[in-house]
Design a protein that fits this description.
- The complex is a heterodimer of chains A (399) and B (279).
- Helix content of chain A is 42%, strand content 23%.
- By secondary structure, chain A is an alpha/beta fold.
- Among the domains of chain A are: 145 residues, Rossmann fold; 124 residues, CBS-domain (Roll), CATH 3.10.580.
- Chain B is mainly α.
- Helices cover 84% and strands 0% of the residues of chain B.
- The longest helix of chain B has 34 residues.
- The chains are: A alpha/beta (399), B mainly alpha (279).
- At the A-B interface, helix 4, strand 6 and helix 5 of A face helix 9 and helix 10 of B.
- Chain B: This is Glycine betaine/proline transport system substrate-binding protein.
Chain lengths: 399, 279
């Protein structure tokens, strides 16, 4: 069921809005309209629907109109044209009183720079939405504490925002939005001000929370990685228009136009799984210490038909097969020098799965992942196939 | 060169306007002059009756707590006030203080709402800004004239002139403080569905508090300076001492009274500034 329906939603900034609107309807471009009327097209006839419980990501570069679009949804910016239906009610047409009611009960917003009130404690910040609605002190404090508990800030309720780190401040922002128990969360570049590691954590946490809460989330971002990570569906914006809407997979596999394709290409390279993701710890024997007896014993223990040979500094020397080793043992040879083979497949830690898939195909032994001559790990055929089969959408485009 | 133009009778117009205002609004001016005048004078006399030692102790304690339990300001207050007591100008100090108190309170009560109005309405801003400029650049003495016409001589016209002179800063600072609240916080307030007054009282005024308090400080200091000038229309107090010393060319006496004003100014200024630092 779609909870939000947006139809032909436009925002034009400037004085000659009427002229600009008619030009827009005739299909004039953003530049043409700017040149002819001096008006800036913020959002150009956006149309989309958001399903209940969905994480809908609106992504685009800065200036693409995504922040304007999200503000049109709760009318922080007045739309020039078009409809915004939230739960069957056309917000673009309702009066002030009704708009306030919807903002209080249905839509909550999380801001890029957190938007916390510095003179209020964490708890008081979280209570804000409920306080505005006139909820009694005890009840709102209880709800706010639950929300803070949910984001893992239960023990910081009496701190002030400036005593917390950026990530924690944004958790407060999230808790404040959740305390209202809204139907829709609007998140405007909510994690963009955080450093990359914290951002990843917050993304994970949001996904965990979403698992429990099943809210409808509209998430604005300029970061395609982030969009792919958290979005059920993604809308790509350029120059105020939505260029493509689809699941991460659809966007990656069938980019609607050059613009999307360029985006996707960039991401592709960085998102590809590499050898280091799927390699495992290798069983080895040390050529300087171990002879056929130890090698055979290790292979028997692990159920292997071959084993890699390294020296004391873990430099890869080659591998030996079980057959050769038992032969050598019969001949009562003391070391492995004579039977080492070196025709093993080798990969670097950053070799893509795609390439590994090709070299592993006919290899007699697992692929050795080597960095600077040192054996870092091995990749067995099963791991590659597993990664290709249940990896994310990105790797599927390679398969 | 432009002799053919007759001189515009501006002065006459203003006189006529003032006369008209006086008669038209005498129903308002007279009670202000009488009732309010009695009230101010009563307050000043009451303060003069209180034993100075008690006032000195109260001021020192206030200074101690307001300045965050530091001893500098309390010590200065005690020494300064003892000096004033020693110079036998205590009663004048009480009168001056009363004038400042009334003038500042009235200025703030008028000024903050005006500032809020200015911050909310572009039109209010366009109309009020030049009026404030006018109020601040017109020589302060000029306000004394209509003050006398409306309220005679004494404390009431002194307070009136001070209010006219001292209100602009608090209006400007309130306007500025509210306009400076970051747009994201205003958006946050809107996004959660605040009404206009909820936004004002729960977000904008708390955020603007420091700026507004800086304006209040300015207003208090300006009313202090005006209260001294108001001695020319019979406002009693330290300014009156300065004026009579000037008329009789008594340099020493004038200096002592001036020193009293400086001491009062420093105490009031530091106290209002510290109020602003707060937590």
């Amino acid at each position: 069921m779609s909870i939000i329906k947006v139809r032909n939603l436009s925002k034009i900034f400037g004085k000659r809005v009427k002229e600009a609107t008619s030009l827009l309807d005739k299909g004039a471009s953003k530049e043409e309209i700017l040149k002819k009327t001096g008006c800036t097209v913020g959002v150009n006839r956006a149309t989309f629907e958001v399903q209940q419980g969905e994480v809908f990501v609106i992504m685009g570069l800065s200036g693409s109109g995504k922040s304007t679009l999200v503000r049109l949804l709760n009318r922080l910016i007045e739309p020039t044209n078009g409809d915004v239906e939230v739960g069957g009610e056309n917000l673009a047409k309702v009066g002030k009183e009704q708009l306030r009611k919807v903002r209080r009960e249905k839509l909550s917003m999380v801001f890029q720079k957190f938007g916390l009130f510095p003179f209020r404690t964490v708890l008081e910040n979280t209570e804000f939405g409920l306080e505005i609605q006139g909820v009694k002190k005890e009840e709102r404090s209880k709800k706010a504490k639950e929300a803070l508990e949910l984001v893992g800030l239960g023990s910081f309720i009496h701190q002030y925002p400036d005593q917390l780190s950026g990530g924690m401040q944004q958790r407060v922002g999230l808790a404040r939005a959740l305390a209202n128990d809204p139907e829709v969360l609007l998140m405007d570049e909510a994690f963009s001000a955080l450093d990359p590691l914290i951002r990843k954590d917050m993304q994970d946490e949001l996904l965990d929370l979403q698992e429990k809460m099943k809210k409808t989330i509209i998430f604005i971002t300029h970061d395609l990685d982030e969009a792919l990570r958290i979005g059920d569906r993604i809308a790509l914006m350029k120059d105020g228009s939505i260029v493509q809407i689809g699941t991460p997979e659809e966007i990656l596999v069938n980019p609607a136009n050059d613009y999307v394709e360029r985006f996707v290409e960039d991401v592709d390279r960085s998102k590809v799984l590499t050898a280091s993701h799927i390699m495992k710890r290798p069983e080895t024997v040390d050529i300087e210490k171990h002879g056929p007896r130890v090698a055979l014993e290790r292979m028997r223990e692990q159920g292997l038909s071959s084993i890699y040979v390294v020296d004391r500094t873990r430099q890869l020397k080659g591998y030996v097969t079980a057959d050769d080793v038992s032969e050598a043992r019969k001949k009562e040879q003391k070391d492995l020098h004579n039977i080492i083979r070196t025709d093993m497949p080798v990969a670097q830690p950053d070799t893509s799965i795609h390439e590994i898939f090709e070299i592993i195909h006919n290899a007699p032994v697992p692929v050795a992942v080597v960095d600077d001559g040192k054996l870092k790990g091995i990749i067995v055929r099963g791991a590659v196939i597993a990664a290709l089969a249940n990896g994310n959408g990105v790797t599927e485009t390679h398969a | 060169m432009l002799d053919f133009l007759p001189e515009l009778p501006v002065a006459e117009w203003i006189d006529n306007f003032v006369d008209w205002t006086k008669s038209a609004f005498s129903f308002a001016f007279d009670p202000i002059k009488n009732e309010f005048g009695d009230f101010i004078e009563g307050t000043a006399e009451l303060l003069s009756e209180v034993p100075p030692s008690i006032i000195i102790i109260i001021v020192a304690l206030l200074a101690f707590f307001i300045s965050g339990k530091k001893v500098g300001l309390p010590i200065f207050s005690i020494i300064g006030l003892l000096f004033i007591l020693n110079q036998d100008i205590w009663e004048e100090l009480m009168f001056t203080f009363t004038l400042i108190l009334f003038a500042s309170v009235i200025s703030v009560v008028i000024g903050i709402p005006l500032g809020i109005l200015m911050s909310k309405s572009r039109w209010a801003q366009i109309i009020i800004t030049p009026i404030l400029d006018f109020m601040q650049t017109m020589p302060a003495f000029v306000y004394l004239i209509p003050a006398v016409v409306f309220f005679g001589i004494g404390m009431v016209p002194g307070v009136f002139a001070s209010v006219v002179f001292a209100t602009p800063p608090v209006v400007r600072f309130t306007n500025l403080g509210i306009r400076q609240v970051s747009s994201e916080l205003v958006e946050a307030a809107d996004a959660f569905g605040t009404t206009g007054s909820q936004k004002l009282f729960k977000v904008e005024l708390p955020m603007a508090k420091k700026t507004i308090m800086a304006g209040v400080n300015q207003t208090v200091m300006l009313s202090l300076s005006m209260v001294v000038i108001a001695s020319m229309i019979g406002a009693p107090g330290l300014g009156d001492l300065v004026l009579s010393a000037l008329q009789r060319s008594q340099g020493g006496q004038g200096f002592v009274a001036g020193l009293g004003i400086v001491i009062l100014a420093i105490i009031i200024d530091r106290m209002t500034q510290n109020l602003n630092k707060g937590k």
